[in-house]
Amino acid sequence: MKELLILSGKGGTGKTSITGALAMLLPLPALADCDVDAADLHLLLAPRPREEHDFLSGVKAVINPTLCNACGTCVEICQFEAIHISIKAELRPFFCEGCGVCARFCPAEAISLQENHCGTWFLSDTEYGPMVHARLGIGEENSGKLVSLVKKRAREEAKRINAAWLLVDGPPGIGCPVIASLSGADLVLLVTEPTLSGLHDLKRVTELVRHFKVPMGVCINKWDLHPGYCADISKVCREQAIPVLGKIPFDKAMVDSVVHGVPLFRQAPNSAAAEAVRGIYKKLSLFPA
Amino acid sequence: MKIAIASGKGGTGKTTIAVSLALAADGPVHYADCDVEEPNGHIFLKPALNQGREFALTVPEVVEAQCTGCGKCREICRFNAITVFGTKAMAFTELCHSCGGCFLVCPEGALNRGKRVLGFIENGQAGNIGFSQGTLRIGEAMAAPLIAAVRKEAEQQEGLVLLDAPPGTSCPLIAAIVGADYTLLVSEETPFGLHDLQIAAGVLRRLEQPFGVIINRADLGAGKTGQWCRKENIPVHLEIPFARKIAEGYASGIPLVQSQPDLLPAFSNLLKELNP
């Protein structure tokens, strides 16, 4: 089983659309959506949840107002500005990091720690294969841990069905959820676009992927919006010995597939974009050699 | 006046909008790039930057000669960032959240305040526009403290402060927008745009902060984002159509209000509306 992770650095370059398209091309895939902050793959693949689970991670402080004597110790020692005093100490839950230092030092023993419900994750079935996805609670943290959990469950599911591929839609950026997605990946497909921002962000994400020693290839989406920068991206990739696995033209079929909530190969199997994704799939299946 | 520009979904045009507002402002204005994982504002504003400085978290550093291996630091750390091997504590600083608990409990004074560099903060000037940005060190997972530092520095500036937020809906977003006087959520007319906008709007409501929406590439999609905003009584301040000319300008690092100057009055008016 090969674990293929789709990343981009820059957001909105087309990760999810391309993941959705590849889900229909890869033979026997298991699927995972690791962009738990803004998960959208389910809008293309229409998963039917088989299991639904709470995601509990870390703790948050709970202040008992009857015990609190507003001494201010907690406010003083909290490094996250998560507690303020009005009449009694009050928690700003968005800011609580769950370190528990306030509870340990509260002289009135007015603070306890409660396990934190950070989100929900699902094991689902799609027409294309089983899919593990999640929904992070509003404004919650711990997205890195939720990503690790999604990947772990998706791997188990992939093993169970003897999948040939585990296809993982990744988050944008280079921080915590991206690093969590990268762990254990066999191959990364970087989706970029021919813009200065796309190129700038691509360089940062290639450096990160190299740091984790995962083989990678690049796909340039909407390449004809600026053939000049497309050539620049190819040149940078050549210099860094990163193969360009394909170029996808700007094609309204891609937008239409999102609008209709179906993968590209349902929406427009003969479109120019679909043809380009087929080419990328062929190269991916031989990669890394 | 602090205006944050955020989105939920990536690539909807946060930087495009933030840069356009900076260029449309008439008074003193400061642009702060809080998308520290992938900061792009500099590509459009081309600021002259100062040398910059490191931004670091305070993390424990064990002074072995003083450590007795009592394990109190291990006990209080909820992030498994400090443990005891044999008779000495050992810190795994990449896991540290900098809560300071270990310093408070160590009876021997055996922990020094070390640092873990999260990234850099740079300041500069782009014409009349004050500029700052944070850049996360590659390989570093924790973006939120760096984002908060960029925001807090920018908040000290006079006049209009524009906070260009990272994508997503979790801690990095909150670190950038908390306390803003107004947040503009940039979305699209696609189901992805709408779905992620709904989550981001939920964050703003939980924060009890006022917000409105800008719909970019408004003619690509089914019109459901605008419909949802109307249903929820969320103001839609601006709808920008898709145009190849805009996309080409964006590609080359040309700000929207320069590639499409007829849009400039819309941004000036928006600023007047938000900051009368």
Q: Concise description?
A:
With 289 residues, chain A is an alpha/beta fold.
Q: How many domains comprise the coordinates of chain B?
A: 2
The residue fraction in helices of chain B comes out at 25-40%
Beta strands of chain A, count: 11
Largest sheet of chain B: 10 strands, mixed
Radius of gyration of chain A: 22 Å
CATH H level, superfamily name of the largest domain in chain B: P-loop containing nucleotide triphosphate hydrolases
CATH superfamily membership of the largest domain in chain A: P-loop containing nucleotide triphosphate hydrolases
Strand arrangement in the largest pleated sheet of chain A:
3-6-7-2-8-1-9-10-11
Binned strand content of chain B: 25-35%
Helicity level of chain A, as a percent range?
A: 25-40%
Order of helices and strands of chain A: EHEHEHEEHEEHEHEHEHEHHH
How large is the radius of gyration of chain B? 22 Å
